[in-house]
């Protein structure tokens, strides 16, 4: 399969970021290329929407908010209009806003998407923006026209309503800083996003990196994909606390890019960065600064330590739990049997507690410039997209990710 991918360019450059000559990520022609040249986006106006008749107010004036209009339709019905950053776009519309009223009252909110969107996420509710609960099914309904309605009680105390729990760049930065208190974790930045936000990076090791094989972890290319991010958090935590941890980090190093699209996250985007592009289609020519910097940094990190990247896991969310994998019929030059044994080990271990659990795996031919294929084309590494269902119970997300980390560590230790 590798012969079908045309090598276009390898450069040796002087990089101001790293201060010495480094090899850049290789550029490839994928069978199904995607145009990732920047496209214009529409910024939402930050404001407070007020209904002076009903004394109801809503706002999008906070990081990760998405609310383009909020209007009173009847005494009890309010319409929340949600538009994407640009189109065409995947129909996974993110929304997040705060609502309150002068007096306690019960209202209906209809979520509408004029620009080809269909409601996807069950609303999550919070009184403080930190602790979240999904809306009760009895109060929320998907409608056939692609909108949805929710019944909710509001008062002078602000209620947060969002598609998923809000984990913006500030919150993620705080989490990363807390994790970095562990001696195995080093936190740094590798550059800036298109709008100037930090691209953070964590290096998990035992203080030595030379000639240690590398596992790469990616997350939050797509802003709304919170369940995948939560799985990544649990996965990393397990690597640190697991009883195999000391032995594992004697032989391996884990390089983590937990927030690849900070602009999209903080601006409440459905899918894209501020270049108007799906970053998980930009792993061929790296037209966007986020993909270029992450790709080059990972290539450099491996080259500097004279090591191979053997595995890349990119955490995402979709409507179901699934592992998107590289097909079995492509040539593998590193850890050739790992993927099959990993998923089987995960299934066996989880089925001890969850009797009906079966791994859902979907493979497909190398086609578009997404990360799981890039890990293979760039490094001959195994590539996996670890997808978590939007509404998968958070307790199960944690359990599954910890088992996945445990099984991965065991298998890789057995390799050597």
Poorly predicted regions: 1-21
Shape descriptor reads globular
Assembly category: single chain
Helix content: 10-25%
Distance between the termini: 27 Å
Whole-number average pLDDT? 94
Count every helix, treating DSSP H or I runs of 4 or more residues as helices: 8
Class derived from helix and strand content: alpha+beta
Described by strand count, sense and barrel closure, the largest sheet is:
8 strands, mixed
Strand content: 25-35%
Give me the side-by-side strand order of the main sheet: 16-17-19-18-20-23-21-22
The number of distinct β-strands equals 23
Work out the radius of gyration.
Answer: 22 Å
Describe the structure.
- This protein is α+β, with helices and mostly antiparallel strands.
- It has eight helices and 23 strands.
- The strands form five sheets. It has an eight-stranded mixed sheet with strand order 16-17-19-18-20-23-21-22.
- Helix 2 (226-241) crosses helix 8 (394-415).
- Residues 1-21 have low confidence and may be disordered.
Features:
6-stranded antiparallel beta sheet, 23 strands, 24% helix, globular, alpha+beta, 8-stranded mixed beta sheet, 8 helices, disordered N terminus
Ordered list of secondary-structure elements with their pairings:
Blueprint lengths: L5 E4 L2 E3 L6 E3 L3 E3 L18 E4 L4 E4 L9 E4 L4 E5 L14 E6 L3 E8 L11 E3 L6 E2 L5 E3 L5 E7 L4 E4 L6 H11 L5 E8 L5 E7 L8 E7 L6 H16 L3 H7 E6 L4 H5 L22 H16 L4 E10 L3 E4 L12 H13 L10 E3 L7 H9 L2 E8 L4 H22 L1
Parallel strand pairs: 8-10, 18-19, 18-20, 20-23, 21-22
Antiparallel strand pairs: 1-4, 2-3, 5-6, 6-9, 7-8, 9-15, 10-14, 11-12, 11-15, 13-14, 16-17, 17-19, 21-23
Helix pairs in contact: 2-8, 3-8, 6-8
